[in-house]
Amino acid sequence: MFAPGDVIGFWSEEAGKRKFHLCISLDGHFIFLSSPKNKVYPTDLPVSCSEFPFLKPTQSGLTIISCVAVMKKSDAELRRCDAKLKGRVSRELMRRI
């Protein structure tokens, strides 16, 4: 349903709220996009909000790509959680990840 590099908004059972996710495989694997927090994890990749022109920028100007939790969602699960395509990131950013 979605391709690597697609940024999708959907209800996340893992986070308990609607969040943005980055598709990282053709097999339905996603990772979280988050706003910066006080605690930084080694698996966090801070990226300029300019990489996501289709999302509202954060106050810090950074978006965190959280590489610690990879979620697998089927097409049926994505339909149930009202998944919507927001935009697509660059190939360069996908290579960095």
What does this structure look like?
- This protein is globular.
- The mean pLDDT is 93.
- The protein contains 2 helices and 6 strands.
- A 6-stranded antiparallel sheet has the order 4-5-3-2-1-6, with no helix packed on it.
- It is mainly beta.
- 12% of the residues lie in helices and 42% in strands.
Describe this protein with a few key phrases.
97 residues, mainly beta, 6-stranded antiparallel β-sheet, 2 helices, 6 strands, 42% strand, globular
Q: Strand content of the residues, in percent?
A: 35-45%
The strand order across the widest sheet is 4-5-3-2-1-6
Distance between the termini: 21 Å
Q: Count of helices?
A: 2
Q: Helix amount, in percent?
A: 10-25%
Strand tally = 6
Global outline: globular
The profile of the biggest β sheet is: 6 strands, antiparallel
What is the structural class?
mainly beta
Radius of gyration using CA atoms only: 13 Å
Report the order of strands and helices.
EEEEEHEH
> Mean pLDDT, rounded to whole units?
93
Q: What ranges have pLDDT less than 50 throughout 5 or more consecutive residues?
A: none
Walk me through the topology.
Layout: E1 6-12, E2 17-23, E3 29-34, E4 44-48, E5 62-72, H1 75-80, E6 84-88, H2 91-96
